[in-house]
Write a structure and sequence with these properties.
alpha+beta; 3-stranded antiparallel beta sheet; 3 helices; about 25% helix
Length: about 140
């Protein structure tokens, strides 16, 4: 489950035309979860999103950076196709297979006041690295 702690954080970082998302955590899974939380925060405050509807995501990719790109694009796809926002991310990665359960609710324009529409994740600033026991996963998303 994605939870904010001193070791697990998310943030936005500046980029000329779009928005960078970054997740950090004690594991690659936590970094992926925190980056997805940053993705939600591009659109709305994640604390305003009730985790009432569950969606599962299954991905396979050996390269951690491409897996991360697929992960973020899958979350964006679910946001678009189901008109939802998510606030809980639970990710498991084993041998290049990502299994995730994401939880959220249908967009309510009054409650969520969405700031932007995210089109997709890009290869720009794409990184998934272990920094001495603290994982970082980041990329720029097209808005």
């Amino acid at each position: 489950m994605a939870t904010l702690t001193e070791q697990n954080t998310f943030e936005l970082f500046p980029h000329v035309a779009d928005i960078g998302i970054r997740g950090q955590g004690q594991t690659m899974e936590k970094a992926f979860e925190m980056a997805a939380m940053a993705l939600t925060s591009v659109v709305t405050d994640p604390q305003n999103v009730s985790p009432t509807i569950h969606v599962r995501i299954h991905l396979e990719e050996k390269d951690p950076e491409l897996l991360f790109l697929d992960w973020i694009n899958s979350v964006i796809y679910e946001m678009d196709i189901k008109r939802m926002l998510f606030s809980v991310y639970e990710v498991s990665i084993k041998s290049g297979v990502l299994e995730a359960q994401i939880k959220g609710e249908t967009v309510d324009l009054h409650k969520h006041d969405p700031a932007v529409d995210i089109k997709g994740a890009t290869l720009t600033e794409l990184k998934v690295i272990d920094l001495n026991g603290q994982w970082l996963a980041q990329c720029v998303v097209d808005v």
